[in-house]
Amino acid sequence: MRFTGKTAVVTGAGSGIGAATARRFAGEGANVVLTGRRAEKLEAVAAGLDPTRTLVHPGDASVEAEVEALVAAAVDRFGGLDVLVANAGTFAGSTTDKTSTDDWRKVFATNLDGVFFAVRAALPHLIAAKGNIVAVASRSGLGGDWGAVAYNASKGGLVNLVRALALDNGRHGVRVNSVCPSLTITDMTGGMTDDKELMARFMDRIPLGRAAEANEVASVIAFLASDDAAFVTGVNLPVDGGVGASNGQPRFG
Fold first, then answer.
1. pLDDT winner (highest mean) among 89-98, 195-204, 229-238
2. In a domain? residue 121
């Protein structure tokens, strides 16, 4: 019960890593604010949580005014804010020559602008609480992938944003970290995990030989947000089954 009496906002909480994270925080005693674009998905996640410690606040992470309203609603309901989990993300897979301007801007609006908006709105409350931020970046932000130029660039920007935020806000007692998952079973990766040939190629590059489950990533997020990580900041932590250790090489030569 590491988060009893604390309040956590989780963006992109309607499915995947966000939903697993909301459940994890709630299970450890936190007040949890769930946000995302699809209210029905948020309500489905919230249905399994204690209603006295849960707030559903639909909104679009890429819209500045909606993010500011989210933070205000969280503070109004629970009296403060201790943890921001910036998880909302989107993917557009294509090479540079085939990536439209609209797709490029859409990916950056959610994956990078949305994190900036949320952090800026939450910071005064996090400073007051000596709280912390955990962003959900990606293994793709630590190294490149084929055919995902906008996603790679946005997550690479997020990785360096985490470092900059940690440097700027450590003096205020606010820690900032990220998790960098490799392939994880979520709604966003459903099309990939259904492709047996593609999955076989992925498995050859993951030493543990499988994709991550969303709750496995959520457990690392909870660790970084907890007092167990009280002296950890500015870290972009791979949750990748050993991909980094193998430098992306196949498991069997």
1. 229-238
2. yes
Q: Which two tokens stand for residue 133?
A: 């931020």
Nearest partner of 129 among 80, 178, 190, 163, judged by Cα:
80
Q: For residue 38, how many other CB atoms are within 10 A of its CB? A: 11
Domain harbouring 217, CATH code: 3.40.50.720
Q: Tokens 């007092």 correspond to what residue?
A: 227
Chain centroid offset of residue 39 CA: 19
Query: Is residue 204 in a domain?
Result: no
User: Which candidate, 166, 165, 160, places its Cα nearest to that of 137?
Assistant: 160
Residue 252 pLDDT class (50, 70, 90 cuts): low
CB neighbour list of residue 191: distance below 8 Å, 6 or more residues apart = none
Cα–Cα dist 68/61, whole Å:
10
Q: What domain count does the chain have? A: 1
For residue range 73-102, what is the model confidence (pLDDT) as tens digits? 999 999 999 999 999 999 988 899 999 999
Distances (CA, A) of 33 to 1, 15, 80: 17, 14, 11
| 46-70 residue pLDDT tens | 999 999 999 999 999 999 999 999 9
pTM recorded for the entire structure: 0.94
Q: Are 61 and 110 in contact (CB under 8 A)?
A: yes
Percent of the chain with pLDDT over 70: 95
* CA 27/CA 70 separation, integer angstroms: 22
Q: Give me the domain span that covers residue 134.
A: 7-185+212-238
Residues recognised as catalytic: 151
